[in-house]
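Hi R.,

Here's the chain you asked about this morning:
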Amino acid sequence: MAEFLSDVVLDCVIDSLKLFPFLFLTYLLMEIIEHKTGGRFQKAISKAGRLGPLFGSLLGALPQCGFSAAAAGLYSGRLITVGTLIAIFLATSDEMLLVMLSSAVRQNTGWILPLKLIAVKVVCAMLAGFITDLAVGFARKKRPIAKATETEEICEMCEHDRCHCEKHGVFLSALIHSGKILVFIAAVMFAVGTAIFILEQNGIDKERIGGFIKGLPVLGEFITGLIGLIPNCAASVVLTELYAEGVINAGQALSGLFAGAGVGVLILFRTNRGKIRENLLILLTLYLTGVGFGLLFNLTGLSGLLGL
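And here is the predicted structure, written out as tokens:
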């Protein structure tokens, strides 16, 4: 029982609290946009929207999933494009960089490989983001879609959460939004952590899983992509460690690391409520794009060419 509390509960609490500053600042920004700017900020964001995937891929590469969490909230308020969201999700490195750097120090292999992985994720995420925005723009021209304004979208989120922003003010409202999301995230992370703990207690460790995956060409990328979708930093840690130890190949690792957006997907489903089909389409795009890039690097020999 003590081991369970240490491995699952404590990790769940710590990981959830790490996200709080990102969640609070995101909702505070959205509250200020809704109540204070009178539409000026929305116009500025819409003008800069085309370059969103460029900046999003760079921000997403930072070693934590806070920006993917923030991006999900901003997208639900329609303050960033779907291409920017995809770029941030794909570039999100979570614990990858830290694990790779730690492995490089232990094995004395240098820092080149971790930097290569980050560069690959940023470039691929950026390209996918721009292509997504182009595809969405083309679809809207072919079939016009009624779209609410940013302020209307933010108001709709507030109505769902019943935060009563007009009574509480922007700071308390942002705190209420953040608290509700944090409880939801903590519950899911606890469930995932418990499942991982049970598997480990029954002898199903990461080495056994990795060895099984490596023996499955093509199918292995689809499996690691599914592992990447697990909304917990354990997914990125496991995939990165397996890759650093040579248990899985570069394409399989990239499939999972591209698909892994941390808790961003959880927050998307929590905040973008009433749009299940849209959320599922974004999730499917994230998964298939991640697997596609992994297969591309393996089947074309790009991973070997880049020294991955």
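One quick note: Confidence is low (pLDDT under 50) at residues 143-152.

Cheers,
M.
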